[in-house]
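Protein in question reproduced for absentees:

***
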Amino acid sequence: MSLLPDFDSAREMFSAYGLNISPELFQQLEIYAEFLVEYNQNVNLTAITDGETILKKHFLDSFLLAHLAGNYFPMQANVLDIGSGAGFPGVPLALLRPENHFILLDSLQKRITFLNLLNKKLSCSYTAIHGRAEEYAKLPDFREKFDIVTARAVASLPMLAEFSLPYVKIGGFWIAMKGKEDISSALSAISLLGGKLVNQIAYQLPDGDERILFIIEKISPCPAKFPRKFSQIKQKQL
C-alpha cells in the first residue's frame, strides 16, 4: 500500500493550483516519500512522516515555487538550493524541471548521504554537495554563477540573504520560501548584497498554512567581503 494518497486524490489537489502531474511523476514522488520515511527511522531528516502531509507541505509546496514564480525560472537554468535538508524544494523541482541542473548544498553529511542514495532511486538532474553556504560562496566556481538560488529555511531573511545572494549571477534571482513574514527588516541587507526585491507571491497550502515567495533580483555584484564567517553573521545580522 502506498504511503501517499492515491493518484486521483493527488491530481485533484495539484490541479486546484493549476498544476498537472503525470502518473510517472507521481510514481517518483511515491518512491521519494517511501524512502524518506524509511530512512528517517534511523536518521532524523523530517518531522513530517504521514503521506498526505508530505504531499502537501513538501511536494506541493516545492512544485509551487516553479509554478507561481515561473516567470523568474528560465529553461536550462543552473539552480542552487541552499540548506536542502531532506531535499526540499530542490529534489521535487528537479523532478518537475529535468531540463534544469540543480546543486543541493547542505552542511550536514548525513543529509547529503541520503540525497545521493535517493538520486540512485530517482535518476534525477541534481548534484548533492556537503558544505557550508558561507564558505562555498567564496569559491570561483560558485560565486555569482547561478541563475536561480532557492532557500526554504528557518533562518531570518537578513541571514538567508547573506548566505544566498553571493551565489546569484547578475540578472538572476534569489527565491526565498518563507511563512507569513515581513521582509522590511531584510531590505537593507538585500540592497547591500546587490539585490532588489521585485515581487512577493503569497499563497496558502490546502490546510491553510500561509506561504510567501520573495523574489529578489541580483542587480549588482556582491561586495567581496560577503558572506562573512558564520559566527559574524550570527552575532550581527546585516
User: Anything to note?
Assistant: The mean pLDDT is 95. DSSP finds nine helices and seven strands in the chain. The chain has one domain: 7-235. Strands lie at 78-82, 101-106, 126-130, 146-151, 168-178, 195-204, 210-218.
